[in-house]
Amino acid sequence: MDSDILTTLKILIIGESGVGKSSLLLRFTEDNFDPEQTLTIGVDFKTKRLNINGDTVKLAIWDTAGQERFRTLTPSYYRDAQGAILVYDVCNRMTFVKLENWLSELEMYSTKSNIIKMIIGNKIDREEREVSRDEGVIFARKHQTLFVETSAKTKDGVQCAFEELVEKIIQTPDLWDSYSPQNNVHVGLKDHPEDSSCSGYCDLL
């Protein structure tokens, strides 16, 4: 029964091929990690219920292939999304550089001007890092997005990332139909207790 659901949100996961988008989705929705995860062909789609401040929210999460040949899917993929997660691999600088392109595409095709964006630096479990956390924070600040570093393998930061994104969406009045004024709470670092599960991973910018 969906009668207890506050709202259903469409969340996108975008970024270059091989950065771990599908692994993040699998870890969040099924708490599983497949080291042999195959590249997504076209679009994958999963749903997940999440409890945010006592309310149940249903997430429809879309994971797309990062390869150019699947870009024909783009317009319908972006339509009506309330949140977007842009993923890069902290061990591959080019995937970080390409975030500018993904942000431009999001700007071009998103049908909601105030869509909530989050930058995720994935694969922090690996030692051969090419992009520092500070670089990620600076980039996210520049583009006014949320920022989290994660590891789909160890699950560090993954739950936090989705929770923070959804909380920010719920607190943005125009993004979902069932919004009520009392939910209009500003999100900021001061709103989160120091013992939050996001400690060490999340920056709310």
From TrEMBL:
Gene Ontology molecular functions: G protein activity; GTP binding
InterPro entries according to UniProt: P-loop_NTPase (IPR027417), Rab (IPR050227), Sigma_54_int_dom_ATP-bd_1 (IPR025662), Small_GTP-bd (IPR005225), Small_GTPase (IPR001806)
| EC number(s) stated in the UniProt entry for this protein | 3.6.5.2
Question: Which Gene3D superfamilies does this entry report, sorted A to Z?
Answer: P-loop containing nucleotide triphosphate hydrolases
Q: Which domain of life is it from?
A: Eukaryota
Q: Which reaction does this enzyme catalyse, per its entry?
A: GTP + H2O = GDP + phosphate + H(+)
Which GO terms fall under biological process for this protein? protein transport
Keywords tagged on the record: GTP-binding, Hydrolase, Lipoprotein, Nucleotide-binding, Prenylation, Protein transport, Transport
Enzyme class of the recorded protein, top EC level:
hydrolase
Could you tell me which PANTHER family the record lists for this protein? RAS-RELATED PROTEIN RAB
Q: Which family does it belong to?
A: Belongs to the small GTPase superfamily. Rab family.
From the Swiss-Prot or TrEMBL record, give the protein name: small monomeric GTPase
| Gene source species | Agrilus planipennis (Emerald ash borer)
